[in-house]
């Protein structure tokens, strides 16, 4: 999917493109006729409600993941990605955080605390991420975990063009 991500400084140029100007006008119309939150955003119809941006990269966390999976397929995305409402993000976290999130220990925590959508895991930053008891880590621990996260990303890449859904299917998941 793609979205228009218009910064304040880019608004004049965006309004010079008729199709973009029309879209901004439609958003303005919608927001003026909407509820209290929408009306509060009418002054900036060219922007999303939340405009979080990563400087380096972001870790993406799906809000819902199949109960069949041994691991939630957290991922690493470049800083030019915008996260929609079906996922959550950790902006500019260290790479070792990915290894922590993909650990069986974290998954045990998640399976105990997470909400459910039917029987699937509904990951919540408030319940799962923010409450996860991370022990004090040494620089060596963090370096080892960074290497582990990099190995996971390299293993995923080695199985291209398999999708994350393919790779995390419990019946097809590669050993690496």
Write structural notes for this entry.
The protein is of the alpha+beta class and 176 residues long. It is 40% helix and 13% strand. The chain is built from 8 helices and 6 strands; from the N terminus they run H-H-H-E-E-E-E-H-H-E-E-H-H-H. The protein has helices at 11-15, 18-32, 36-40, 96-101, 104-113, 125-129, 139-158, 164-167; strands at residues 57-62, 64-65, 75-78, 87-91, 115-117, 120-122. A hairpin with a 2-residue loop joins strand 5 (115-117) and strand 6. The chain is elongated. The protein starts with 10 loop residues before the first helix and ends in a 9-residue tail after the last helix.
How is the topology of this model organized?
Elements: H1 11-15, H2 18-32, H3 36-40, E1 57-62, E2 64-65, E3 75-78, E4 87-91, H4 96-101, H5 104-113, E5 115-117, E6 120-122, H6 125-129, H7 139-158, H8 164-167
Antiparallel strand pairs: 1-3, 1-4, 2-6, 5-6
Radius of gyration: 20 Å
The shape is elongated
Return the structural class: alpha+beta
- The residue ranges in which pLDDT falls below 50 over 5 or more consecutive positions are none
Treating each run of at least 4 consecutive H or I residues as one helix, how many helices? 8
Number of strands: 6
Strand content: 5-15%
Question: What's the gist of this structure?
Answer:
Helices cover 40% and strands 13% of the residues. The chain is an alpha+beta fold and 176 residues long. The strands form 2 sheets. It has a 3-stranded antiparallel sheet with strand order 3-1-4, with no helix packed on it. The chain has a 3-stranded antiparallel sheet with strand order 2-6-5.
């Amino acid at each position: 999917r793609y979205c228009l991500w218009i910064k304040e400084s880019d608004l004049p140029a965006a309004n010079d493109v008729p199709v973009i100007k029309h879209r901004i006008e439609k958003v303005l119309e919608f927001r003026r006729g909407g509820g209290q939150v929408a009306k509060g955003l009418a002054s900036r119809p060219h922007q999303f409600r939340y405009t979080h941006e990563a400087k380096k990269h972001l870790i993406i966390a799906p809000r819902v993941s199949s109960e069949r999976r041994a691991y939630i397929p957290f991922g690493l995305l470049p800083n030019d990605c915008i996260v929609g409402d079906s996922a959550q993000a950790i902006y500019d976290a260290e790479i070792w955080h990915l290894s922590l999130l993909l650990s069986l220990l974290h998954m045990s925590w998640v399976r105990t605390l997470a909400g459910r959508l039917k029987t699937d895991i509904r990951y919540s930053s408030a319940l799962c991420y923010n409450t996860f008891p991370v022990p004090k880590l040494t620089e060596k621990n963090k370096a080892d975990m960074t290497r582990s996260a990099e190995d996971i990303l390299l293993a995923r890449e080695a199985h291209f063009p398999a999708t994350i859904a393919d790779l995390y299917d419990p019946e097809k998941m590669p050993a690496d």
